[in-house]
Amino acid sequence: MCFLLFFIVSRGLQMTPDGPFNPNPLNTACFLILVSSTISTFVVNYRGRPFMQTFKQNKLLLRTVQGSALIVFICTIEIFEPLNQMLQLSPLPSGDYTLLLGESGPSGVNGIVSSSISMIGFKATLCLIMILDAGLAYAAEKITIKRFG
């Protein structure tokens, strides 16, 4: 999956290791997935009682987490361009990638991602990956607590 993401967004990009920061679709997509993953990991691992308030009791924390998740999705969908420019995010690719992947495309997870990109687009696939990451983190935490807790 990471190879496919790298292949799609890195074509035609020139990177210098120690040069100035130049935003490109690859580091934009990686940043958005990393922030989304960090938010979902925080929410899943937040314990609350008996040592802290629960999310429902701590309204400021709840609103901050909700606002952060909303900002990540706004940046992913690119509906508020000044925010993306302020965070130095480059525009995400749009278009048909079936020509890059060949007729049959890759198999396994890369095949699922490539077919998702060709059906619903890159931005929607990125949002779907973020939502699946949060759901899988929640499920893994619940299974771990049930099994070992």
Describe the protein's architecture and organization:
The chain is mainly α and 149 residues long. It has a domain at 25-91 and 123-148. The chain has helices at 2-10, 25-45, 59-77, 81-86, 98-101, 109-120, 122-148. α2 (25-45) runs parallel beside α7 (122-148) and α6 packs across α7 (122-148). Residues 98-102 have low confidence and may be disordered.
DSSP strand (E) fraction?
Answer: under 5%
- Molecular shape: globular
Helix content: 55-70%
- Give the tally of β-strands: 0
Structure keywords:
149 residues, mainly alpha
What's the short story on this structure?
The protein is mainly α and about 150 residues long. The chain is built from 7 helices and no strands.
